[in-house]
């Protein structure tokens, strides 16, 4: 029997949550499970879903934090109801807490289980606002997030951790990133600091740029390569910051890339000075490609990065700490190599196969409970 799972998603760009979902869906046993994913309109994420053979339904989900979106919620609710009935959906799974309230209502209406994935830190108020205590199952991408959710009132028996994942067969150390370096006018021997993340305030790109302004004076020939969407208001502000600091010849905005592996191949160190996080997929990808890390000690990041072994953890909001950590690594090529090798070994612990097993076991437990529930 094939059971349909309806995934609620309202993004078309590809961030960490979308990459996690793609990885989990890619290897699902299609003889048992039929994934259906909502998207508001076409774009990179639905394109990749369709190339994988995943059914995409066009639904614009409301932002439940905004009361004025009542009309949109009603329209989306009607659309979701039709999908649930037509496809005989067995479980509704919201890929973000903000989409869960509507998913929960539709699931309750049809007496089917509701699931939600939590990719980042939530305040207790947000946990209550998104009604996460109503979910039959809450998946978090780090144990630290799971504990926060439980302290905010979600039953311990309803939470499980599925760490972000990486395909270590696909993400392997590149011999070099020569083509990318040549594209941006970076010399073969120039030190390159990289950040693979959509340019957003919580990722701390302003902190990284401030740190690089100092590093550029300390390290001859250094470059900064930023890989990710940068057309937001914050992204435009970051480009202006680079111009104002006179760094345009050495800071490169590569934009969104479907395949980030050549860009990892071009860098020497991955730096992610986030203000808050879940369990960043890019950190796992960097480790799988044997790249040492400098990252903020926030939320789930310390569960991924072994401080002093696979990278260096620094306090958030601290450009000087980033400067010190990166400079120390750049000056010690042997340590760079050792950390990269240790990261590659650690990445094997975050296999997508293990994550998929936890996901399916969670689904099956809910369906068993539904069958056993009194009518």
List the helices and strands and how they pair.
Layout: E1 3-8, H1 16-26, E2 33-39, H2 44-51, E3 55-58, H3 70-87, E4 89-94, H4 100-110, E5 114-118, H5 124-129, E6 137-140, H6 143-151, E7 159-161, H7 178-183, E8 192-196, H8 205-218, E9 223-227, H9 233-244, E10 251-255, H10 261-266, E11 269-272, H11 281-288, E12 293-296, H12 301-304, E13 311-314, H13 319-330, H14 333-347, H15 352-372
Parallel strand pairs: 1-2, 1-4, 2-3, 4-5, 5-6, 6-7, 8-9, 8-11, 9-10, 11-12, 12-13
Helix pairs in contact: 3-4, 8-13, 11-14
What's this, in brief?
It is elongated and about 65 Å long.
Q: Keywords for this structure?
A:
375 residues, alpha/beta, Rossmann fold, 2 domains, 7-stranded parallel sheet, 6-stranded parallel sheet, 13 strands, 43% helix
């Amino acid at each position: 029997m094939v059971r349909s799972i309806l995934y609620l998603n309202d993004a078309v760009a590809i961030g960490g949550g979308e990459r996690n979902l793609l990885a989990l869906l890619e290897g699902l046993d299609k003889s048992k499970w039929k994934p259906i994913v909502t998207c508001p309109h076409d774009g990179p994420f639905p394109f990749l879903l369709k190339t994988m053979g995943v059914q995409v339904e066009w639904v614009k989900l409301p932002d439940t934090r905004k009361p004025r979106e009542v009309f949109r919620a009603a329209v989306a609710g009607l659309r979701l109801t039709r999908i649930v009935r037509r496809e005989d959906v067995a479980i509704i799974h919201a890929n973000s807490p903000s989409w869960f309230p509507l998913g929960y209502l539709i699931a309750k209406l049809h007496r089917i289980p509701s699931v939600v994935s939590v990719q980042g830190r939530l305040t207790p108020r947000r946990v209550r606002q998104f009604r996460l205590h109503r979910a039959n199952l809450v998946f978090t991408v780090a144990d630290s997030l799971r504990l926060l959710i439980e302290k905010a009132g979600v039953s311990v028996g309803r939470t499980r951790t599925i760490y972000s994942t990486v395909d270590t067969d696909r993400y392997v150390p590149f011999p070099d990133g020569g083509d990318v370096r040549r594209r941006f006018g970076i010399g073969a021997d120039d030190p390159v600091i990289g950040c693979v993340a959509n340019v957003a305030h919580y990722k701390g790109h302003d902190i990284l740029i401030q740190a690089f302004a100092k590093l550029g004076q300390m390290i001859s020939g250094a470059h900064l390569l930023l890989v990710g969407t940068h057309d937001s208001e914050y992204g435009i502000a970051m480009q202006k910051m680079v111009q104002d600091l006179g760094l345009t010849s050495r800071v490169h905005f590569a934009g969104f890339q479907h395949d980030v592996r050549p860009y990892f191949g071009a860098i020497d160190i991955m730096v992610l000075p986030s203000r808050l996080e879940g369990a960043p997929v890019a950190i796992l990808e960097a480790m799988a490609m044997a790249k040492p890390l400098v990252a903020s000690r926030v939320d789930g990041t310390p569960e991924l990065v072994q401080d002093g072994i696979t990278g260096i953890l620094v306090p958030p909001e601290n450009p000087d700490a980033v400067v010190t950590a990166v400079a120390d690594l750049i000056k010690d090529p042997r340590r760079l190599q050792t950390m990269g090798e240790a990261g590659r070994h650690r990445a094997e612990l975050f296999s997508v196969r293990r994550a998929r097993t936890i996901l399916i076991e969670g689904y099956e437990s809910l369906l068993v409970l539904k069958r056993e529930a009194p009518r």
